Amino acid sequence: MQNYETLSSYSKDELIRLIELYSKNWLAMDGVWFQSIERTRGMDEAMFHDAEAWKRFTVIEARRIKEFLQLPERPGLDGLARALRLRFYANLNEDRIEIEGNTLTYTSINCRVQRARERKGMPFHLCKEVGIIEYREFARAIDDRFSCACVSCYPDVTDPSCCCKWRFTLREE
Questions:
Q1: Whole-number Å distance between alpha carbons of 158 and 16
Q2: Under a CB-based contact definition with an 8 Å cutoff, are residues 135 and 107 in contact?
Q3: How confident is the chain (173 residues) per 10-residue block, as mean pLDDT?
Q4: Do the Cβ atoms of 84 and 90 come closer than 8 Å?
Q5: Could you tell me which residues are beta bridge partners of residue 99?
Q6: In angstroms, what CA-CA distances link 155 with 36, 123, 124, 129, 172?
Q7: Judging by DSSP bridges, how do beta strands 146-153 and 94-100 pair with one another?
């Protein structure tokens, strides 16, 4: 109860800033453990563990967001769009969501992870392989009818106007 009392003493604007701080802290922790493995055991080992972590985390995150939003079992494109907006890093990265027909395209215009690696003089994170796991499993946890395809993501950049782009297609039954 003590934490609730502490949090309830803050204004809405302060709580929004706190959410941003929590998001930055979480993302920093994600980067710190990854870079520790990358430095000591190499990129391949770091990527293996990154993929293993995302296989589990992204489903947990999606289920909790789905519950928070009180989405139905199969909320479709609108449900996925709403859920993507609440991901832990959604308020840190500039993104765009477009829906056309039975397809949702999610574009990360500016990625905090890649910009941080760039600032530090590090090579870009090879995020496509892990991104496929992350976005596919997130979408399926929101609605099991989704398939996910990478449109553009490092190292296979096909759209230089963004950091990455993903296409989710809702299978009609």
A1: 35
A2: no
A3: 82 94 92 93 94 96 98 98 94 93 96 86 89 97 98 94 96 83
A4: yes
A5: 104
A6: 21, 11, 8, 9, 32
A7: unpaired
